[in-house]
Every structure is written in structure tokens, then in C-alpha cells.
Amino acid sequence: MTVATAQPANSPQNSLAANGRRQSFFEDFGIWKEAPVFIGTTKFEPLPDVKNIMITGGAGFIACWLVRHLTLTYPHAYNIVSFDKLDYCASLNNTRALNDKRNFTFHQGDITNPSEVVDCLERYNIDTVFHFAAQSHVDLSFGNSYGFTHTNVYGTHVLLESAKKVGIKRFIHISTDEVYGEVKDEDDDLLETSILAPTNPYAASKAAAEMLVHSYQKSFKLPVIIVRSNNVYGPHQYPEKIIPKFTCLLNRNQPVVLHGDGSPTRRYLFAGDAADAFDTILHRGQLGQIYNVGSYDEISNISLCSKLLTEMALVPAAVPGDDDFRKWVKYTHDRPFNDHRYAVDGTKLRNLGWEQKTSFADGLRITVEWYRRFGERWWGDISKVLSPFPVVDGYEVHSDKEPITDLPQPTVDAEVQVSKKRKVEASNGQAHA
Ligand SMILES: NC(=O)c1ccc[n+]([C@@H]2O[C@H](COP(=O)([O-])OP(=O)(O)OC[C@H]3O[C@@H](n4cnc5c(N)ncnc54)[C@H](O)[C@@H]3O)[C@@H](O)[C@H]2O)c1
């Protein structure tokens, strides 16, 4: 077993642990022993120049799938170091099943702290970095946008500078489809060459981070790859995002609350397929390239509710508007801005041999089953995060008190904004005339 929780004695983590708040991450109640150990399905010939891989954000959702996948699929080829600050959304349960593996190490550290990052890179002789660590929840970025810039932009900068310092051979930067901004229903799927036009502080911080990655590639020949993925879902996701949050609410026999009218769509990729995509990019991706990871499953938030209600056998055939549906689905005001949809073209990655293998129906079944069994125990008390717009303050999550109604609320998307603006301009014009 190689579990390092390395940190200097006077680090913030330790002082927090001393006052009892962060100690909880290290308490092991054994729940992970009951859970299946999920990984992806791909396996490649190991790369001769890759030996020690640091995965930032490894105790978070998507990265923990890759940590498990690489540790268990390449036990003799790669050593995996999961580097994580253990933020509010992390859980060591996500990787505890690996603690007895010789090629796995957990290292607690903060990507915004240069000495902690360099210490990890040097200590484990890291040659390859997968950079996932981020503030990842759009809703929170409207209220705490400085935190997003600090972690996602400055933290990425620290990693890049540290990677340059130690001569990293591959730096795979995880970005998001949200950097492209909203895609209209009638528009084509976006290629990797499309312009970036983020519309919320989270997406903007991810786009800004990409600019730094690009600059380190050009200025310092840092060997980088950028990955922009659709929404990922599956077991192990902290219940702040729509699928795990709604599943946990329904498990509690509580209604779910949609933002606006529930019409925005997202494309969903099962986490096992995402792990395969990252594995494929590691082994077959070309340095200097950008890869979209695209799913075929585009689903509106309201239709997601129907699928969940049916999957959870709460409503046999849930149709929006029916009494049964209205019992379980409520509404609150929309986000300050809500992209109607994202749509990336994933052909470039599929040309490397990656494919989406898990249907949404299968993925949702696996996910619902997992949250039924573990959702209430995996992260400790999740009650506060289940409110429509929770607020995170440091490591604490607080419930909001947003008004909830039975009726869809006005949506805030680009077209609505434009038509509202035109109306205002027209009425101003009339007033001035
Ligand atoms: N979830 C999605 O659907 C999705 C889609 C596309 C791209 N992404 C990107 O994938 C990455 C992972 O997303 P996720 O949903 O798994 O996130 P997550 O919120 O579940 O996990 C983030 C992890 O990063 C860690 N972290 C945060 N700040 C840190 C810091 N300063 N130092 C070290 N660790 C820190 C947290 O403790 C947590 O374990 C992010 O970069 C996100 O932008 C996510």
C-alpha cells in the first residue's frame, strides 16, 4: 500500500484537520469495500517513455475513473499519483480500492501552491501529467467567480510552470465543451478549430486556462494536448450536478427542481467511456493537438427528469405536464445565463479508435443503482448540496432558499436575451421618436 498524504506540518490542510473539519476525508468507514470498482474498457501497448503519471483532481469524479483505470489496467507499466487538495466535492472513497496497489499513490496537495506541485513532480519523477483539478460547477461560478479564476487559471499556470521546470514529456489538459459557448439548434457540431466564446465564469476560466496551455506550448515547447469533453455522468460524481443530485433527491422521495423551464439540452457521456477517451488520447493522441470528446446522447433537462422518474419506477411513463410528473418536478428561476446547448464534433478522437460504448439507458441504470446504494453515505451528509443553487464557502456547503413553483420559469438563453434586447431597443426608439 502506498498512500502518501504528504503535506508540511503547518499546511492549511493540517490546521483545518486540527480544528476537525478536513480530518473527515481520512476517516474510512469501509463503504468503498461494498462498491464495484469501475474502470474503462480500453487497453493499449504501454508507451516506453511513460512511467510515472500524475493525475490532478484524482479524488474527484472524472479523474478518479482514469486513476482506477490506469492503475488497474497497466499495473506493471505505469505508476499513478493522484494529486488532490481534497476540496468539498472530493472523496478518498473514490480511490480507496487502490490503496493496496503497488503502482498507486495518493498525494494531498494544492495546484495553486507551486512548491507542493514541484515537490510532487520531483518526488515521484513524474513524466506525464493529466490535469483535471478544477472548480467545476457552473452554478457556483456565478457567486464565487474569483475562486474559479484562482483554481482554474492560476492553478493551471502553476502546473504549466512547474511542468516546464521539471521537463514533463506529456501534459494533457482537461478542458470542456463549455469553452465554445452556446450552439444553436440549427448549427453544425463544432470542430476543435472553432472559436472559444464562453458565457459563464466557469467556462471563461477554463478557456483562459487553455490560453495559458497554448502559450506554454508555443513559448516553451511544452508537449501539451487539450481535451474538450461533453458532460460526463456516472457513479462517483458529487451530487451537485444534475444527474446525481436529482437521483439523490428522488431517492429521498423529494421532488427535483429545474432551473428555468428545463429546456436546455446537454450531451452526456458515461464516465467509463470518458476514461477510455483519456486512455486513447494518452496512447494515440498527438502532442500539440486538441481533441473534442463528443457524445451522441443529447437530452433536455426536462426529458432527463422523465427518464429518471421512469428508471426509478416512480412514474411508469413520465410525461411532462401529467399530474404524476408535476408531483416530482418543480421549478425555480433560471441561472443568470444558461447556454441552451453545447455540441462538439468528436470525429477527430473517433479517428484514433475511440468510441462511445455505453448507451444512455445503460449508463443511467448503472448510475441510479449506484446512488441508491451509496449516494447517501459516500460523501457524508449531502443534504445541503441538494438545494437548487447551493453556496460553497471554503470547504462548507450551504443550502439556498430559492423560491420553488409548480410552473416553468422564464428561460435565460441567448435567443431570449437577444429578443428581449430588441424589444427594449424598439421601445426606447419609440420613446425617443
Ligand atoms: N463533469 C463534467 O461533466 C465535465 C465535463 C467536461 C469537462 N470537465 C472538466 O473535467 C475536470 C474534472 O471535472 P469533475 O466534474 O470530475 O470535477 P470534480 O469537481 O468532481 O473534481 C474536481 C477535483 O479537483 C480537486 N481540486 C479542486 N481544486 C484543487 C486544487 N486547488 N488543488 C488540487 N486539487 C483541487 C477537488 O478536490 C476535486 O477532487 C475539470 O477540469 C472539469 O472542468 C468536467
Give a structural overview.
With 433 residues, the protein is an alpha/beta fold. The protein has a domain at 12-239 and 266-298 and 342-357: Rossmann fold, CATH 3.40.50. Helix content is 36%, strand content 15%. The strands form four sheets. The protein has a seven-stranded parallel sheet, sandwiched between helices. Helix 2 crosses helix 8 (271-284), helix 3 packs parallel to helix 5 and helix 7 crosses helix 9. The model is unreliable at 1-21 and 417-433 (pLDDT under 50). The structure holds nicotinamide-adenine-dinucleotide. Its cofactor is NAD(+). Residues 54-366 form the NAD(P)-binding domain. It comes from Lasiosphaeris hirsuta.
Q: What order do the SSEs take from the amino end to the carboxyl end, as H and E?
A: HEHEEHEHHEHEEHEEHEEHHEHHEEH
Q: How many beta-strand runs? A: 14
Tell the overall outline: globular
What structural class is derived from the secondary structure elements?
alpha/beta
Strand content: 5-15%
Percent in helix: 25-40%
Fourth-level CATH superfamily of the domain at 12-239 and 266-298 and 342-357:
NAD(P)-binding Rossmann-like Domain
CATH class type of the domain at 12-239 and 266-298 and 342-357: Alpha Beta
Supply Rg. Answer: 22 Å
Mean pLDDT, rounded to whole units? 90
Organism: Lasiosphaeris hirsuta
Protein name: dTDP-D-glucose 4,6-dehydratase
Pfam family, one: GDP_Man_Dehyd
GO molecular function, one term: dTDP-glucose 4,6-dehydratase activity
